[in-house]
Design a protein that fits this description.
The protein is of the alpha+beta class. The chain is built from 8 helices and 9 strands. About 31% of the residues have low confidence.
Length: 232
């Protein structure tokens, strides 16, 4: 599929998410493994104030990620079972409880935690806002509690500006969040950072709402060798 085709596909999904969220919120709720309650099949959090709730693909879509993993809520654990699945489910539920502003999804044995850049950074900046450090500290607390994972901090931008500039900005933002996680106690051996620039949009860059959604930083959390061995 062409790049334009992908953008149209995810634009449709994102628009559908915004339109469907009212119905989804009225559909009932589900209990997570840690006892917390969340609405079925919604991200609950908001990307820059716009509710997102039409599947994990709307969070982790793009050329770098594919598939429609289980959105945290009513379908936790649908993507993977056994030791790995249980471990990631518990981590996801606790992350969601501590970070209600984040959108959290499972894809196979990986967990994705997405935060809108508007929460973390001022426009066109890569210095974390003082108020946002508390959110990162909460994420770090969960990551430290669940040590059998690796984390890649991924930075994404909209298409405003040059491709080169957006790539550099996404890298600086990913590195800033990584460094804050390290300061909050996550071992450096577990964390890396990568910028994707504008290459992995989740919404239509021709609209203000789409550009806002595309400006995000997300954590890709995956099992380490020790945890994979327990799956055995």
């Amino acid at each position: 599929m062409t790049g334009a085709g992908k953008n149209v596909r995810w634009s449709i999904k994102f628009t559908g998410a915004a339109l469907a969220v009212i119905l989804l919120l009225s559909a009932g709720c589900a209990t997570n493994p840690d006892g917390t309650t969340e609405y079925k099949r919604t991200a609950v959090g908001a990307l820059g104030g716009a509710a997102v709730g039409a599947g994990a693909g709307a969070l982790i879509a793009g050329s770098g990620h594919r598939g429609t993993g289980a959105l945290i809520g009513g379908v936790v654990g649908a993507a993977a079972g056994g030791a790995v699945g249980n471990y990631m489910d518990r981590q996801a539920a606790e992350m969601k409880r501590k970070l209600p502003e984040a959108a959290i999804a499972r894809e196979g044995d990986k967990l994705y935690v997405a935060l809108p850049s508007g929460i973390l950074f001022d426009v066109d900046k890569a210095v974390i806002k003082p108020a946002a450090k508390d959110s990162i500290a909460k994420a770090a607390e969960v990551l430290v509690k669940y040590p059998d994972t690796y984390i890649t901090v991924e930075g994404h931008t909209d298409s405003t500006g040059t491709t080169e500039y957006n790539q550099k900005l996404s890298e600086r933002r990913a590195e800033a969040v990584r460094d804050q996680l390290l300061r909050d106690g996550v071992p450096a051996s577990r964390v890396s950072a990568r910028g994707y620039g504008e290459s992995n949009p989740i919404a239509d860059n021709s609209t203000p709402e789409g550009r806002q959604a595309n400006r995000r930083v997300q954590l890709e959390i995956r099992p380490n060798e020790k945890l994979k061995a327990q799956q055995g």
